[in-house]
Every structure is written in C-alpha cells, then in structure tokens.
C-alpha cells in the first residue's frame, strides 16, 4: 500500500504497533494452502480487511506482488499472487462480505486481475476525507482512531523481490491488522457527523471500479512536452515513448528505469543522426540528479540502436503521418481562459464554487469530494438545454455524480446567474 501524501504536521508520541498479534503469517504460495486459508475465511464472520502490494517504479504495469487479508476469527493471511495468479477460492470464501480497504482505487484494479471483486466495501481513506481528517494516510488514520502508530518504512520497496524479507512481511501484515477496528470507529464518526449516507454512496460506486479510464495518446503526458513545438519533434517524442514502453514491457521494468522522460525530450529536440550522437544525449540534461543521469546513460548506451531507429522512422514520415500538435478534447477549456471566452460561464462557476466552498468549510469536507471539479466545470461551461432542476440533475448523474452530490449541487447550479448584469467585471481564477 502506498501512503497518501501527508502534511508535515507534528504527530503526538503514540505507542508503536511493531508486530502482528498472532505473529507473521507464512506466505501462501501453493493451491492447498490457499484452499485452507479460504476455508478458514469462509468459516469466520464479519468484514474482511484487504490490501495489496505492487512494485510501482520497479516493474512494468501495476500487478500485485502480495495480497493481505484478515478476518476476525480466521486471522491474517499473506498470499503470493505470482505463484497463485487465480484467487477465485478467496473470492468464493469472502462472498458478499464487506471488503475494508485503505485507498481502494489503488488496489481494486490489481485485485480484479486476480479474480477478486467486491460486492460491498468500506474505504477508510475516502471515509476519512469525508470525516474531515487533516491527514488520511493509513498511519495517520490509525493514530487518530486507535491511538497507535504503524511503522511505514517499507511502503516504497520492490515487492517483486523474492524471497520477501521478514521486516517487509511484518509491515504487510500490519496493514490489515487493525483495519476493521478503524472501519468501526470511522463509521461511527461518519454517522455522528451525518455523513454516513454520503460515504456509503461513494463506497457503493467503488464496487464497480476497475481502473482509471484509458488515456488517448498517453505519450503526450511525457514530462517536458511543453518544450516541444515542432510537429516532427512531437512525432519523435511519440516514437521514442512507444519504443521505451515496448522495451519496458519486454523486460518487465518500469519505463522510467529504462529512460527518463527528460532524455526522450532531449532526443526529440536534438534528433541525433548516429549512434554516437544518441549516446551523448545525456550530456544535455541540465539539473538532473546523479541517479537520473546514470539511468539515462545506461539506457542510451544499452538501447542506442532502438532510439536511433525511432528517430529515423520519423525522418522518413510524410507530413500527413505526423501527429497533430494538439488533440481536440470534449473537456471545457482551461479555467483561466473562461473570463475572456465565456464570461457568463465564468460567473456561474464563481457563484457555485463560492457556495460549495462555504458548505465544505461548514461541514469540514474537501471541496473536491463534494463534486469533482471536472463535473462542475462541464455542467457550468455547457449547461443542459433544459435548464431546470430535472435537466441539471440528469446531466450531473450522466457525469457520474452520486445522489447526495446531486442533491447538494443541483440547487446551487439552478441559482447561478445565466446572464451577467450590465457592467459586471469577471476575472478568471
């Protein structure tokens, strides 16, 4: 589990939970042991705490390299999904029981790949946001509700390592050790604040989450693309990015460990004509850290012929084969341009955001959890043709807003001015 970004607020001294109460479970890596674990889980009752560890930054893709489960009455289990890529016995054992996860969207896609799907879930990270906690990483939430500290020093290790070191297994088992206890305290807190129904609607929506939407032209998100203006250089970024992705998949390595984005941009801008020129491209990386320079130099040397082939392919392309400099999007334009391009929409957005902000402050909820910024911008930039309560509610639902969010946002949108009063100045944010 990757910890959410936290502020540097001082933390009181809490007792440290250093080891699981029942000791470190053996890692399950064969079918018989998996079935025994499934039988124990099926015989117990109550919610099931789950977590998954990936090797982000080390391996290609986001597969799970360890799965942790705990159920009261059955104990904790550590599963090796490399040896056991089909966890259907666990899915059958859990059945309709509620899953308890922290930051569910991180783990649900890789658990889906293993054949596991929740019928109901409780996300302690999202619930903590709705409850107004200032810090929502697992360690901070455990401290808040249970008054104990979890050690998190192994959160960014390479979980594809085999065998897994014992300290890492301790860390992994602790991630599910007290998760159900946190769930119980947090649920009571949400109910006391009158937010439990909000949370339950959010959790219900997450049961169908399988991963973020696929991006069109993901290579366009290469860091440093703003330095590329020429269409042929843009094509070189595309070919180099696709080449790097293919190499990364072949070697099951994170793309950034094959070649940093900055090196792709440097190659795209300089377009070296020979292998020697490719190998020297790292010299153009200003301000790069030593580790990034080492990765760049290694990748340029090891795969120099493939980078040069990508550059040569672009040189042979006709103008019609080059990608456009920009891609049309159905999303509203950048908010900073609204005041000039559509002052009425800018005024509507300012009106609704101010009132949502007041509500967020009064109820101690992050503004983005009341309704996603993209949903709000889409509705206010292009209001529904039938601008009444039904029309607004239908458009919000179409964009994925939950009923509680619609009940909150629709009346405010309906109150927003459709026209500017005479001589009303509008400024973009």
TrEMBL record:
One of its GO terms (molecular function) is ribonuclease D activity. Residues 230-321 form the HRDC domain. Its EC number is 3.1.13.5. GO terms for biological process: nucleobase-containing compound metabolic process. It is an enzyme of class 3 (hydrolase). Keywords: Hydrolase. Gene3D superfamilies: HRDC domain (1.10.150.80), Ribonuclease H-like superfamily/Ribonuclease H (3.30.420.10). InterPro entries: 3'-5'_exonuclease_dom, Exo_C, HRDC-like_sf, HRDC_dom, HRDC_dom_sf, RNase_D-like, RNaseH-like_sf, RNaseH_sf. This is Ribonuclease D.
């Amino acid at each position: 589990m990757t910890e959410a970004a936290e502020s540097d607020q001082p933390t009181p001294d809490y007792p440290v939970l250093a080891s699981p109460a029942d000791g470190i479970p053996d890692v399950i890596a064969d079918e018989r042991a998996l079935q025994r674990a499934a039988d124990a889980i099926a015989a117990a009752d109550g919610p099931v705490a789950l977590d998954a560890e990936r090797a982000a930054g080390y391996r290609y893709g986001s597969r799970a390299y360890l799965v942790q489960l705990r159920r009261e009455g059955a104990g904790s289990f550590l599963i090796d999904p490399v040896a056991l890529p089909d966890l259907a016995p666990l899915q059958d054992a859990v059945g309709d029981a509620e899953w308890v996860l922290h930051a569910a969207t991180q783990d649900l896609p890789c658990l889906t790949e293993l054949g596991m799907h929740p019928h109901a879930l409780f996300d302690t990270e999202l619930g903590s946001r709705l409850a107004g906690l200032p810090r929502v990483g697992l360690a901070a939430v455990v401290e808040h509700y249970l008054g104990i500290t979890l050690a998190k020093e192994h959160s960014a290790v390479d979980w594809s390592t085999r065998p897994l070191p014992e300290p890492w297994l301790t860390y992994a088992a602790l991630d599910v050790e007290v998760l159900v206890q946190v769930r119980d305290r947090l649920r009571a807190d949400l109910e006391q604040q009158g937010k439990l129904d909000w949370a339950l609607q959010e959790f219900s929506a997450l049961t169908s989450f399988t991963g973020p939407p696929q991006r069109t032209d993901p290579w366009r998100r290469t860091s440093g693309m703003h330095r590329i203006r020429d269409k042929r250089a843009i094509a070189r970024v595309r070919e180099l990015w696709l080449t790097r992705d293919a190499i990364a998949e072949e070697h099951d390595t994170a793309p950034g460990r094959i070649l940093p984005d900055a090196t792709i941009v440097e190659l795209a801008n300089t377009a070296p004509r020979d292998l020697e020129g490719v190998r020297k491209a790292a010299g153009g990386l200003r301000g790069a850290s030593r580790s990034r320079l080492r990765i760049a130099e290694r990748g340029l040397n090891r795969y120099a012929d493939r980078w040069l082939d990508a550059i040569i392919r672009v040189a042979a392309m006709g103008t019609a084969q080059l990608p456009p400099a920009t891609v049309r999007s159905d999303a509203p334009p950048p908010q900073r341009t609204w005041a000039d391009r559509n002052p009425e929409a800018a005024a509507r957005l300012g009106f609704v955001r101010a009132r949502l902000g007041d509500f967020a402050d009064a109820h101690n909820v992050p503004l983005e959890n009341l309704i996603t910024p993209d949903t709000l911008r889409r509705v206010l930039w292009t209001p529904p043709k039938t601008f009444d309560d039904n029309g607004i509610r239908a458009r919000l639902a179409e964009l994925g807003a939950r009923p509680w969010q619609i009940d909150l946002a629709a009346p405010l949108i309906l109150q927003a001015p459709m026209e500017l009063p005479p001589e009303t100045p509008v400024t973009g944010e």
